[in-house]
Amino acid sequence: MKLIAILGGLMVSTILVSAATPWAERFDYTDQAGKFADTEFSVDLFGVAVSEERERLGGDSLGIGAGVNYFFCRYAGVGAETYLDELDFPDHIDFSAIGRFPLEDWSVAPYVFAGFGRQYSDVSQWSTHIGVGAEFRLNSATGLFVDLRRVFPDETRDSTDFRFGVRLVFGP
């Protein structure tokens, strides 16, 4: 609970304090080079659809979530996220190692990720996950992303998560 409160406070603080890119310009598309920095911190705000294989909630569910990412070089980073699909926050937290390959000419970065997580409600359990995704950068401060992950919990059935959202980049 404390970790999620800290992550939430960090995300809100970062969004409120950051003045690197005015909000009016954050969603403008530019064809400038260098949209993917060598080091960057970002906040993800996303929707999620979880497959019917999951036992809780009787099947498919939709939710909203948030995460943070830090890329310590152009091609590799780490991330943490959580999402809410029923009113029992916090449900879980996931940590990932991320590998991406920015294609600057197309403003796209395909990526792969793998990691682990801990679920706190319903059935308390550990899980691992692997996934693939792509991010389209509107400019150096904002991207749109989609990804698909397979989750392997240690107590319940495997599930598939589909995430889609916006990535707000706040520089190194």
Could you outline the blueprint of secondary structure elements for this entry?
Elements (H helix, E strand, L loop, with lengths): L1 H16 L22 E11 L10 E13 L2 E9 L7 E9 L7 E12 L5 E15 L2 E12 L5 E11 L3
Antiparallel strand pairs: 1-2, 1-8, 2-3, 3-4, 4-5, 5-6, 6-7, 7-8
What does this structure look like?
This protein is mainly beta and 172 residues long. It has a single domain (2-29, 38-169), classed as Porin. It is built from 1 helix and 8 strands; from the N terminus they run αββββββββ. The protein has one helix at residues 2-17; strands at residues 40-50, 61-73, 76-84, 92-100, 108-119, 125-139, 142-153, 159-169. It has an 8-stranded antiparallel beta barrel. The model has no long low-confidence stretch (mean pLDDT 83).
- Largest sheet entry: 8 strands, antiparallel, barrel
CATH architecture: Beta Barrel
Output the CATH topology.
Porin
| Total domain count | 1
Which stretches are poorly predicted, pLDDT < 50 over at least 5 residues? none
Which class in CATH terms?
A: Mainly Beta
The strand line-up of the biggest sheet is: 1-2-3-4-5-6-7-8
Q: Work out the helix count.
A: 1
Overall average residue pLDDT: 83
Helix content: under 10%
Q: How large, in whole angstroms, is the Cα Rg?
A: 16 Å
How far is the first residue's CA from the last residue's CA?
27 Å
Q: Strand tally, please?
A: 8
Please report which band the strand proportion falls in: under 5%, 5-15%, 15-25%, 25-35%, 35-45% or over 45%: over 45%
Structural class: mainly beta
Order of helices and strands: HEEEEEEEE
Name the overall outline: elongated
